[in-house]
Design goal:
The protein is mainly alpha-helical. It has one domain. The chain is 80% helix and 0% strand. It has nine helices and no strands. Helix 3 runs antiparallel to helix 4 and helix 7 runs antiparallel to helix 8. The longest helix is centred in the last third of the chain and has 28 residues.
Length: 200
């Protein structure tokens, strides 16, 4: 029987990634720019964890997180110069209807190729769930970077699916992380809604 110490040692990268993930969501809720470097480090750890678990789409998602973390940090630090002409603090906002339509189309265009590749060219045990959660996470992270409040709704759905998948895969530290993610996504939505209400 494996001891608790042996389990911790064997799953040290997963545990470190889970702790980093909690920090990432904490700073997301607080709308603190530190979420992006923490997210970058967490993604690096989870590339290894998900590669070892054969969750290839979710592993590649972590590569995306590396890039979006750089983008999110830059956008939150320097603001949207396209309309203002200078850097500004990015406020929480609702997603415009035209962007919703683009996100829906992007979801379809991203999810099906990922599923097809996983199904036909990898030994991924759950290509449907792996591709769905990866796609939702891609869209939600971009929405987070733009400070659209609806990112939390996408996270609630995606993290709930992931929670069941990781539990079944016996990634228990990650299961605990995603249980926390679901709860924190609800908290994040209502915290961001407060800023939105003040703004309006």
């Amino acid at each position: 029987m494996i001891s608790a110490v042996d389990w911790i040692i064997h799953h040290s990268l997963e545990i470190a990634g889970a702790l980093g993930g909690l920090g990432y969501v904490f700073f997301s809720i607080r709308r603190n720019i530190l979420l992006w470097p923490i997210g970058f480090l967490t993604a690096g750890l989870y590339i290894i964890v998900f590669l070892n678990s054969k969750l290839y789409a979710t592993m590649l998602l972590q590569v995306y997180y590396l890039g979006i973390s750089v983008y999110g940090w830059y956008y939150w630090k320097y603001g949207d110069k396209s309309n203002q002409g200078d850097a500004k603090h990015i406020m929480v906002k609702r997603i415009p209807i035209n962007i919703i339509l683009i996100c829906i189309l992007s979801t379809v265009c991203i999810e099906f190729p990922i599923y097809w590749i996983l199904k036909n060219f990898t030994d991924s045990p759950y290509p449907v769930l792996d591709s769905i959660t990866a796609t939702f996470s891609i869209i939600a992270t971009w929405m987070l970077a733009r400070k659209y409040i609806e990112n939390w709704i996408i996270w609630i759905v995606s993290d709930s699916i992931s929670l069941g998948l990781y539990f079944y895969m016996k990634l228990y530290a990650t299961t605990g992380l995603f249980l926390a993610y679901v709860i924190l996504a609800f908290i994040g939505y209502f915290e961001w809604k407060k800023e939105l209400s003040v703004k309006n």
